Amino acid sequence: MATTINRHDTHSTTAEGAWSTKRIAVTALFCAVSAICTLFISFPIIPGVTFLKYDPSGISALIAGFAYGPTTGLIVSILPYLIHLGTEGGVYGTIMAILATASLTLPASLVYQRKPTMSGAILGMAIGAVVCLACCILGNLIVTPIYMGAPREAVVAMIVPALLPFNLVKILINCVVTFFVYKPISKALED
């Protein structure tokens, strides 16, 4: 049976094609979930390094990227973190949160978009993990001295004992949880 699309139900906004009203609403929902996570569910995961806090908002961005493509993943990787501008994280927290989430979500969703299988998801998250880890370390080397006034040598000294393990654990949690919850969530998102 052929389906017809009412021209008022879609919006042409990206190279990925027209966005349905449902897709726009679900994207907004993913952004809201990410914003709530980043505001209310954050905690340190490396003892003694309390300024590095994990929050599960990256899971929403990964799921959005897998479900609707890289553009949606990127939107959910950016918009919710603008909230950091009004928190103690300020500009620094915003830049680092966007960098960390986008550098994992974009490569993962690009690979998954081309190969929408379990192995594509795993490969995408593995590539995203490597890109994210590199971006987070590089971002800390560039951004932390500027916004926190820490000497670059102090940041370099934190790579192995704090930055590397924190980012590895964060990436691992985001990827493992996404792996297990994506399928049931994607079924709920189907038209």
Give a nutshell description of this structure.
This protein is mainly α and 191 residues long.
Low-confidence stretches are 1-15
Compute the number of helices: 6
Strand order, largest beta sheet: 1-2
Helical content band: over 70%
- Round the mean pLDDT to the nearest integer and report it: 87
Q: What's the quaternary structure here?
A: single chain
What is the straight-line distance between the termini? Answer: 15 Å
Principal-axes shape call: globular
Report the major sheet: 2 strands, antiparallel
Strand content: 5-15%
Q: N-to-C SSE series?
A: EEHEEHHHHH
Number of extended strands: 4
Structural class: mainly alpha
Radius of gyration (CA) equals: 17 Å
Features:
191 residues, mainly alpha, two-stranded antiparallel sheet, two-stranded antiparallel ribbon, disordered N terminus
Characterise this structure.
A hairpin with an 8-residue loop joins strand 3 and strand 4. The protein has 6 helices and 4 strands; from the N terminus they run ββαββααααα. Strands 1-2 form a two-stranded antiparallel ribbon. It is globular, with a radius of gyration of 17 Å. The longest helix has 38 residues, at 152-189. Mean pLDDT is 87; it is low at 1-15. By secondary structure, the protein is mainly alpha-helical. It has helices at 21-40, 57-68, 70-78, 90-114, 118-148, 152-189; strands spanning 10-14, 17-20, 43-44, 53-54. Helix 1 runs antiparallel to helix 2. Helices cover 71% and strands 7% of the residues.
What is the topological layout?
Elements (H helix, E strand, L loop, with lengths): L9 E5 L2 E4 H20 L2 E2 L8 E2 L2 H12 L1 H9 L11 H25 L3 H31 L3 H38 L2
Antiparallel strand pairs: 1-2, 3-4
Helix pairs in contact: 1-2, 1-3, 2-3, 2-4, 2-6, 3-4, 4-5, 5-6
